[in-house]
Amino acid sequence: MASRLLHRHIREQLKDLKEVTHESLVVGAIENAFQFMDEQMARERRGHQVEGGCCALVVVYLLGKVYVANAGDSRAIIVRNGEIIPMSREFTPETERQRLQMLGFLKPELLGGEFTHLEFPRRVQPKELGQRMLYRDQNMTGWAYKKIELEDLRFPLVCGEGKKARMMATIGVTRGLGDHNLRVCSSTLPIKPFLSSFPEVRVYDLTQYEHCPDDVLVLGTDGLWDVTSDCEVAATVDRVLSACEPNDPSRYTALAQALVLGARGTPRDRGWRLPNNKLGSGDDISVFVIPLGGPGSYS
């Protein structure tokens, strides 16, 4: 639904702009479009009994500028003359810990008496009541000590690390579209109040640089980035594109395929493996490659 309709919402919001006097107007139009898409999903799920949600990563080109909007754990980078320019970041329970904790602090009813907004290095045990333990709240980037109280025994709002980090012990992303019916496991507590459909939008001015055919914008789902670093992606960009003629229009498709196959790995005795023998990605691997300089163009 998002892949079919989100770009239409963006187009409608941009059409309402009589004149683009500042890039913030385009950013606001894209942000609004994400909200309207999420609201449409909420309305239509009632009639169609459709559940679930998705992340969304969008690129808009307008008046010489590229706008990258991200809600979820997909990412985008620009590879320009070997330089890596991040155009988004992942939104996970780890990266958005303070936003989630702040919401839980301001609206404790959303925690349903089942969770605590505080974070501890590990799960607090009943035998530790009255003892001192490290913690951090919604305002803290460091750690401090507190005396463990009864409510600290509740499950933490944010727990785990890396790909195992979860919000409300259920979901590993904190922004996206849909999931209006999602509940905490074995509970009726809704998760949607903590899931934001609001994207982060970053802007890249194409007119400020001279781009060659090997300068590209790479968009990928978490299946790519879970097993492939930015530097590895940049190395694949250089290897694949340098082996193709600058005017070959299929060179960018070949690059996207190489990135997908590289993240998947090759079949071996114990599953799909990468060259370093680590497991290949078991997640969805979708990749877009967008050239920033036209084929054969160095302007």
UniProtKB/TrEMBL annotation:
Pfam annotation, one family: PP2C
MF (Gene Ontology): [pyruvate dehydrogenase (acetyl-transferring)]-phosphatase activity
InterPro entries in UniProt: PP2C, PPM-type-like_dom_sf, PPM-type_phosphatase-like_dom
Record domain PPM-type phosphatase: where: 1-292
A GO term from the CC aspect: mitochondrion
CDD domains for the chain: PP2Cc (cd00143)
UniProt-recorded name of the protein: Protein phosphatase, Mg2+/Mn2+ dependent 1J
Organism expressing this protein natively: Phocoena sinus (Vaquita)
SMART domains cross-referenced by the UniProt entry: PP2Cc (SM00332)
PANTHER family in the cross-refs: PROTEIN PHOSPHATASE 1J, PROTEIN PHOSPHATASE 2C
